[in-house]
Amino acid sequence: MTSTEFSTLNGSAAFVPAPASPYQGDIARYWDQEARPVNLRLGDVDGLYHHHYGIGDVDHAALGNPGDGDYEKRLIAELHRLESAQAEVLLDHLGPVGRDTTLVDAGCGRGGSMVMAHQRFGCKVEGVTLSAKQADFANRRAHELGIEDHVHARVCNMLDMPFESGMAAASWNNESTMYVDLHDLFAEHSRVLAVGGRYVTITGCWNPRYGQPSKWVSQINAHFECNIHSRREYLRAMADNRLVPQAVVDLTPETLPYWELRATSSLVTGIEEAFINSYRDGSFQYVLIAADRV
Ligand SMILES: C[S@@+](CC[C@H](N)C(=O)[O-])C[C@H]1O[C@@H](n2cnc3c(N)ncnc32)[C@H](O)[C@@H]1O
Ligand SMILES: CC(C)=CCC/C(C)=C/COP(=O)(O)OP(=O)(O)O
Ligand SMILES: [Mg+2]
Prior knowledge:
The protein has 294 residues and is α/β, with parallel strands linked by helices. The protein contains 11 helices and 9 strands. Bound molecules: S-adenosylmethionine, geranyl diphosphate (GPP) and magnesium ion. S-adenosylmethionine binds next to helix 1, helix 5 and strand 4.
């Protein structure tokens, strides 16, 4: 393994491996440079920084009306509440998690879901991301919260994680599966999970009933430099890797209110129309899949 650079956190040098492919190098750079207000200002609400979308009904009573004083602040808080609600639903599907166990967050971003998992279960959480900036950010937040002994992010490829086989009681991908081959990904989760362990993903996938990826799905792929898979591909790749689905939940109706609200905010990024149109025309779905490692 060759190192390309050194990243520092609190003065300690950390080894950063070279990307496994030119594509992974592009994705590492993408997330190293990302600083969209729609993510940072939402995270500033309570210190949980997410790179995923929201679910649930909008609380119109809490939001008030455009033109009311502080409306924009309440809108940001509401979008953030819906994003955290999404992570809570993912954690709900991990099943019972003991304090002495370790969880793996594959594609952990700035670490919001890891912090929530530790706060809920008291367990250890190991996160991996391609981005040294994100790993530093997540580790800094864990340090500020005094939970650095339990929550830790590192720069590494989720297809080749430096964890012993069977070490994880549960693992997940929160909106990070569209950057990798699903057979390779589920083979690696299957390796690190204990037999009887639980895997959960929340993801956007194209709907085989539509036929092929729609122009909206292609637009989302181009926007994020990712490769959205079909729903069928998830289920096939799980079946091939000893992951047996226990729940497949279509969250599309639950995520539309988030997008409709976000489209009215000053923090729009331009991708809102593609999500709203593809969810409405049925070509794209927001799904949760929970599977047992058998
Ligand atoms: C959309 S963000 C999701 C972040 C996080 N799961 C969340 O919910 O906030 C996608 C994440 O996947 C990570 N990622 C993409 N490909 C990866 C790979 N091959 N190995 C590790 N992380 C990867 C990126 O670095 C980024 O952190
Ligand atoms: C559901 C799908 C297809 C997701 C693609 C992966 C992705 C980029 C998620 C959100 O990240 P973000 O929170 O950084 O994006 P944004 O800046 O749009 O909020
Ligand atoms: Mg976001």
